[in-house]
């Protein structure tokens, strides 16, 4: 395609970009039809893309051409139509890669800027082929750039334009692959270490509703990707399970940092809204873990592939240790409230680890602890969970989930006074351990929110090992 450069130079910026997209489509179609494996776009073509679409200067002495805001909008519309009209997914993926695969050069900033605007427009106008290509891009690109794209979309649909969240939420059924990768990216972006890195309420509500509607959504990338071992360190995790677990575990303490003034009842402004959401999300994550044995066995990966990595667990425990120390120093929170929130955090971590181990998501030898100097977490929590008996939670295996309108009729809600005890995995009717007295339920859900029924699993389940403080 290098010979078309001279014909593009006299054109205005929009006309040249449109013409190059047309030739790029034809070039990639011929490349695919040639049967060359793997089909690869040559460097000359990539240089044309950088010069006439991304407007990177050919050399230092040549000023880069710029589009007006109107011309850029017209280019985005042309690109949306181009991907929509191309029926072959292979061609679309190669074209998307030629436009937006990062090359480690000066044009990458232009690539990221144009990519964010294109994906945002694709969400707004329902261009599924672009979202499918973006899902592949998120799977193959360094996580630093993945979270940058996620930040653009969150800003566009959860911050800048009031009432635009439903537009983003509706892509759940249109492109589940993109939704899965988007969840993974935002859980990587928002690690709850600061107020700025805490997910907006609208985003949290949307993700909870997505997973409640379809728990397998968070496994789509894993289910559709050939896996032989661990993913590259630089890429996003193969599932968002680790990030979602981090959200649930850290939330009780992270949302009580000194960023909101305490109200007269000792709670913060956003706690009543986020508390039930994180509780519902925690239950959903545990239910996803329960789906894994059959899936891993079908792939022949049970006991061979860990979806939760010990390295990320070590980071989580280190973060929890700092949060526990910060909670002890709060002056506007009573010691009883601080203890209850700390206990809830530790309980959620213990529950998640035991269910993850029981269902093959976490692989580690019993008694193994994280090699961190984290006192409370390392010695008390991880050793008690990893050394204790595996508990099978038979009362969380079926929907409806969390605050579904049918939750009152679910097995979870209908038997709140009969907690499940640990049983042998092959003989569920014969307990292998004596029954334990239930501890006092943690008051995690304000009674003023009847639309979010309390979870019996979270508030009434006997837990035989109690962390000490």
From TrEMBL:
<feature type="region of interest" description="Disordered">
    <location>
        <begin position="407"/>
        <end position="459"/>
    </location>
</feature>
<feature type="compositionally biased region" description="Low complexity">
    <location>
        <begin position="407"/>
        <end position="417"/>
    </location>
</feature>
<protein>
    <submittedName>
        <fullName>Integrator complex subunit 15</fullName>
    </submittedName>
</protein>
<feature type="compositionally biased region" description="Low complexity">
    <location>
        <begin position="432"/>
        <end position="450"/>
    </location>
</feature>
<dbReference type="InterPro" id="IPR027844">
    <property type="entry name" value="INTS15"/>
</dbReference>
<dbReference type="Pfam" id="PF14964">
    <property type="entry name" value="INTS15"/>
</dbReference>
């Amino acid at each position: 395609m290098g010979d078309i450069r001279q014909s593009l130079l006299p054109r205005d910026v929009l006309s040249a970009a449109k013409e190059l997209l047309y030739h790029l489509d034809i070039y990639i179609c011929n490349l695919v039809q040639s049967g060359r494996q793997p089909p690869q776009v040559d460097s000359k073509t990539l240089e044309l893309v950088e010069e006439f679409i991304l407007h990177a200067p050919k050399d230092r002495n040549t000023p880069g051409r710029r589009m007006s805001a109107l011309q850029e909008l017209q280019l985005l519309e042309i690109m949306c139509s181009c991907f929509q009209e191309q029926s072959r997914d292979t061609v679309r993926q190669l074209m998307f890669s030629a436009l937006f695969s990062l090359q480690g050069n000066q044009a990458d900033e232009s690539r990221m800027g144009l990519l964010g605007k294109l994906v945002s427009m694709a969400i707004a106008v329902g261009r599924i082929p672009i979202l499918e290509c973006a899902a592949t891009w998120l799977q193959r690109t360094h996580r630093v750039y993945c979270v940058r794209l996620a930040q653009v979309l969150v800003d566009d649909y959860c911050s800048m334009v009031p009432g635009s969240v439903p537009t983003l939420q509706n892509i759940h059924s249109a492109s589940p692959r993109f939704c899965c990768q988007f969840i993974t990216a935002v859980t990587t972006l928002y690690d709850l270490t600061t107020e700025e890195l805490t997910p907006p309420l609208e985003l949290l509500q949307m993700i909870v509703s997505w997973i409640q509607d379809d728990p397998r959504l968070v496994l789509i990338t894993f289910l559709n990707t050939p896996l032989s071992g661990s993913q590259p360190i630089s890429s996003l995790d193969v599932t968002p399970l680790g990030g979602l677990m981090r959200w649930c575990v850290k939330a009780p303490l992270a949302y009580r940092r000194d960023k909101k003034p305490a109200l007269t009842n000792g709670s913060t402004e956003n706690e009543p809204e986020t508390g039930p959401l994180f509780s519902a999300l925690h239950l959903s994550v545990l239910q996803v873990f329960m789906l894994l044995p059959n899936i891993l066995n079908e792939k022949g990966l049970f006991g061979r592939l860990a979806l939760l990595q010990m390295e990320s667990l070590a980071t989580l425990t280190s973060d929890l240790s700092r949060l526990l120390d910060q909670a002890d120093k709060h002056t506007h929170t009573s010691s009883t409230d601080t203890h209850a929130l700390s206990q809830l955090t530790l309980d959620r971590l213990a529950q998640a680890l035991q269910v993850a181990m029981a269902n093959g998501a976490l692989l580690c030898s019993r008694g193994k602890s994280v090699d961190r100097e984290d006192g409370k977490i390392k010695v008390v929590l991880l050793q008690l969970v990893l050394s204790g008996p595996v508990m099978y939670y038979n009362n969380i295996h079926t929907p409806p989930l969390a605050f579904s309108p049918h939750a009152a009729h679910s097995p979870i809600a209908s038997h709140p006074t009969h907690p499940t005890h640990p049983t042998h995995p092959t003989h569920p009717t014969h307990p292998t351990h004596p029954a334990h007295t239930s501890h006092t339920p943690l008051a995690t859900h304000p009674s003023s929110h009847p639309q979010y029924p309390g979870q019996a699993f979270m508030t009434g389940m006997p837990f035989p090992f109690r962390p000490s403080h």
